# Entry
Amino acid sequence: MGVRIGVIIALTTLLSYLHILNALREEALAHLERYVTERSQREQAIFLLAKDNHTVLKKALEERIQSLTQEEVSARFDRLFVHLPDGSVRNRAEGFDGTKMPGVFVPRRVTLDADMRRRLLAAYDVLSWYGPAFHTRFTNTYITLPEGPLAIYWPEHPTWSQEAEPDFWSLDFDFFPISLPQNNPERKTAWSQIIVDPVARTAMVSVSTPLDEADKHVATISHDLFLEEMVARTFNDVLPGSYNVIFRDDGQLIAHPSMAEKGSAGSYNVLETLKRPDGAPAQPGSPEQLAHIRDIIERVKSRPPGEALLKLPEHGEYLATARLEGPGWNFVTVLPEATVTRPAFQAARTVLLLGILSLCLELGILYWVLQKQITHPLLAFTRATDRVATGEFHVELDTSRGDELGQLARAFRLMADQVQRREEELRLANESLEQRVEERTRELKELHVQLVQTARRAGMAEVATNVLHNVGNVLNSVYTSAQLARERVNDLRLAHVGRIAHLLQEHQSDLGTFLTQDERGRNVMPFLSMLGQNLLDEQREILSLLEDVGRYTEHVGDIVKVQQNYARTPRIHESVQLAELVEDALRINLAGLSRHQVKVVRELAALPPVLTDKHKALMILVNLVSNAKYAMDGVPPAERVLSLKLERTGTDHVRIQVHDNGMGIAPEMLTRIFQYGFTTREEGHGFGLHSSALAAQELGGSLTVHSSGPGQGATFTLEIPYVPAQPET
# Structure
């Protein structure tokens, strides 16, 4: 009975709520659409008026520029304006009243020519004629020349042109770039983002119209509109329970009641950066508010054309939107769904309360019956359950009842007896299990000892293989350098020295005459000079090769030390110039690179010294360069290119990339390339990349590989921590 009454009450409440809600929703949404349409028409009136003003100003300025003669410009310009000691050109102070006449400002970096003087004087005249009339609706009116000069009529800031810094450059503000041909090819009126004037320190939006003369941009006409009044209306003139938002399509927030102080004209781009236009830190609200306004913007941008009413179900809101002609801003009124549902909910609540009173009466009767027939027997079952849980399986229950509770009591007694029997069986099985566990534990300990010994032998073999692999790379370079030195010695022109000596000995008696008059004698001294220079060059080459042999031999010892340290604590890091380390790796592989005719391309950033294990890093680079050299065997010699790039990534890592245009790596091999024993070369042993990856991890970094596939080359990337070395004192 209680369930039946509850269902009837719930259905009645639901139907009442749905009927009232539907009627209120239709009325509220119709009112919301009318409100947004009226508000948008009122707000956009000032923008349309600005466009009409610019049409008048553009025509007047064009006519004035053409009508001014050079004689009139020369006669009036110096009388109105003066070149100040700070390098700028401004109005003469003795006759200037910024509340009645325009101000002129020319930055000191601008050199005025005759054409600029004519256009600037024309702008001054046009603002004098039309500025006072337009000031009734607009903050100011100004004309900017593409070269930097500016004429402005702004009675609220009459000294603007006198207070501007000499190097003030108005062309950097958003109102001017939007008038340039490359940004405004249609040469139409355009609206800027929110800007802050550096002299008046006031946030505003600018409307600009370009003026061209013979396909040349000669001036930009602009109005500034303060946003305080519009923002105040947006905050205060709202429908009950709703609020208004104004934003641009690119995400710049013009007005929002909870993400800017009331009356503020600050704006925020919630889709990109969170900065005020003047660079000050933004105060846009909580992350939840940011996510909310982003959803509103995305919903409005994705609406079908012509649709003014939208729903934002994830936030439970209705949106009414209109486009403000001129700047193209979106005016949106947000009406929470709760504002519409609240009256319907209150009516449904009344129906629900009456139903609950009826339900309570029936539940009171049911409680009395259930207490006597159900509750007391269940308490007996609860006590019996607690006794079984403590291990006491002998319980007393009323099994004489013929209803369901009597059947449950008999089943419970049977269950208690079975649990007691199984408890005994489990005890016996547990004793047997403990004995088996002890035997198994003893076997596992013996197996562990064997595994430790096997792992030690495998580790020793791995270290030995690593040493042989890296030493072999260096010894190849040692052998090549020694062979080159031997060839240089064999090619020395020492036999020429003996022939010259024999020739001089034959003419010892008339040596002076021989050296000055004889045809062969005159060539002796130049030949000796060239021979000496040749011997010096050969000496330097041989010494350089012998120095390479010494450095490679020293590196063999370092490789052995590095491998010996694998099983001990890490090496002490030392100051390392990474660019020099890359060059050392190339020098170690120089002979092989030359033999394979590989062209090396370097892109090494100039980085300060870092602290790292020099020899481990060098070992990795030597292996990568050596592998890249062999990977290009299938490429024609003239096309073999090895690229090395050194750069800093972020603030805490340095990246070294080794790229070859060789055989590439198949996708299925990329996951196995660093495994021990894996190799793609017949003579390879699969240890170089494995040991290099381990060494990169010990340096605190990583070694990765990328390849687009066979024949597309491969790029190995070594990343290590960026730890700047302290300068030596």
In short: The CA atoms of residues 41 and 608 lie 62 Å apart. Confidence is low (pLDDT under 50) at residues 261-266, 273-278. The first strand starts at residue 81 and ends at 83. The two ends are 93 Å apart (CA to CA).
